[in-house]
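Sample intake sheet
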Amino acid sequence: MRSHPFRTLTLRTLGLVAGVLLLLVTLTGSIKWGLTQVGWQTLLNAFQTPEPTQVELVILNTRLPRALIALCVGASLAMAGALMQALTRNPLASPGIFGINAGAAFAVVAAAAFFSVASFQAYTWVAFAGAAISGLIVYGLGSAGRTGLTPLKLTLAGAAMTAFFSTLTQGVLVTDETTLEEVLFWLSGSIVGRSLQSLTTVLPFFIAAWALTFALSRPVTTLLMGENVARGLGQRTGWVKFLSALCVMLLAGGAVAVAGPIGMVGLVVPHIARFLVGNDYRWLLPYCALLGGSFLLLADIGARYLIMPGGPVAELLAGTAARVLSDEVPVGIITALIGVPFFITIARRSVSE
């Protein structure tokens, strides 16, 4: 049995306090740091003055919504990833394997190509619908047969639907360059240009999923002991699996609807939380929420500075490449750069074990 740094109740509680402080620091940094220089006094005045200046409007209308979206999306993806890894008993599982990202992406591309949908608000609802439909199909396929829902069948169904929707998406984009230009930035995963309205659209789903996920923490921990053990303890495992899958659809679907298919958060963060507190989901899920929000906030801050005008990388990419990427890199690219080495490490460890 592996030892974990936070083994006692006191250490785990202190870890949660540290996680809250880290989240507050990254949230404040996300609001303060960027292309437009913001002083501490200006930051405070933005929330107090009835007649904000132009810089203060940038804080209220651009950076604050962006920071809150990153927090909610990061926390939701991390919690969804933790549930996916418990449901499939696969350390490499993440919301992408459930077909949710692919289903949402196809729905947005199809809406833009065939129905001329072009607004972020419309993308939010279309992506949510696509994610939900894809998740229901995967759950239905994974539950078919006499054996019911099993980790292997769920994983295979998710992989099959991911490949199916990804192929359809690529087919539409190849035949419609206009649609490609409209949705490319969204498909790479980005929270640039999102408003608080896009967050409030899915916030009720987030809140319901967060509450249900925390309520499932004890049953999910019991389920990890094995199907027979859980049933022997009186657990209705079918309901636990169904409600857990529903939470994954709401959490990941809402995240994709708001920010596009941002990868690797649901893979990386649960493993960091598991290293700290082990497999007790009563502690693992709160840690995932705090660390997931901080992780995406930090990645978004890095995305702003990587090719900021006047910076060394921007000069290196001077010309067409810099214009294509706008003034910053989509945050989904940053999370992928961080997550790929992590993915390789976990895969090698799983094979060796």
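Comment: The two ends are 13 Å apart (CA to CA). The first helix runs from residue 9 to 32.
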